[in-house]
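Fold this sequence, please.
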Amino acid sequence: MANLEVNWMGLRLKSPFIAGSSPLTGTLENLLKLEKAGAGAAVLPSLFEEQLAAAATDLDKGLELGTESYGEALSFFPDMGSYNRGRDLYLELIRTARKELSMPIIASLNGIHPGSWCEFGRAMQDAGADALELNVYALNTDPAVSASKAERDLAELVRHTVSCVTIPVSVKLAPFYTALPNLAHKLKRAGARGLVLFNRFYNPDLDLEKKTPVPRLSKTTQDELWLRLRWSAILYGRVKLDLALSGGVSKAEDAVKALLSGASVVQVTSALYEKGPELIRTLVLGLDRWLEENGYSSAREATGSLSQKSVEDPGAFERANYLQLLRAFRDGPR
C-alpha cells in the first residue's frame, strides 16, 4: 500500500483529499463520516463578510465597503443562517469538531474587504481551526480599477488577515488574473501559505418573462479540471506555495492528474455533495491502486512529476500547445 500522507501548509494530512467548502461540511455528523472514509481535512462552509457586516454593532464603519456593489445583488446570496448557521454557531461547530476529529479543520471566509476578517479570523483560530481559507469572490466592474490595483488590494487583504492569526492561510483564487505567477509571488510575500486553484463564479441567467437576472448553480464537470491542471503544472516549483486543486475532481484518476501536475492536495466538492461522504473512500482506494501499479511508493513522490518543470516539452502548457491543436484540427478528418 502506498503512503498517501501529504503536507498542506505545514499540516499533516493522512490523504490528499480535502472535503471542499459546502453545506455538506457544515455538520459534525458529516465531518465524522468524511474522516472515517479517509478525508485528509475538511473546509467548513464559508462565512460571508455580509454576515459579519450584518452582525456588527457599528455598521457605519462598513458603509464605505462595497461601493462598487449593487443592491440587487443581495438577492443572489443564500439565506445565511440556513447555509452555515451564522457566526456564533459557526464557532461552536469549530470547537465541537476540534474535540471530536483528528483531521485538520479549515475555516473559510468569503469576501473581498478586510472589514471584520481580522477579528473573526482570530476568533476562528481561538475556537480551534487549524487553518484559514480566504475565499476571494471578487469581480471588478469599475473601469477605473486597474489590474495592478486589484492585485495590490488582494495582497493587502491577505497581509492584513495573516497579521492577525498564527494558523496558516490559503487563498482561493479565481482564474482571471492577467499574470497569475506574479500574483502568486505577491501573495507569498503577503504571508499566504497555499493557493487553491480555482474559485468558480456562478453566473446569472436572464429570465425573459420577468426580465430579470436569476442565479444559476451548476455542478463542476471534468472539463473544468484541465484549466486547473495547467496552472498547477505551471506554478509548481516556481512559487514557494503549496497548491490545492479544486474543481472537476470526481474520480481517482482526476486526483492522480492533480498530483502529477503539482498539487499537494485536491478539494472535492460537487461530486462529494452529490454522492455523499463515502465517495472519499472510493477515491482513496483508487489513488492507492494507481500509485502502486505505476511504481510510486507515496503520493509525495508522484507530486509534480508531470509539472512544466519536469516534462520534456514545457511548451505543452503554453502557446505551443495551442498551435499544435490548431494544426491537428486543420489536418484532421473533415
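The first helix runs from residue 28 to 37. The chain has 13 helices and 13 strands.
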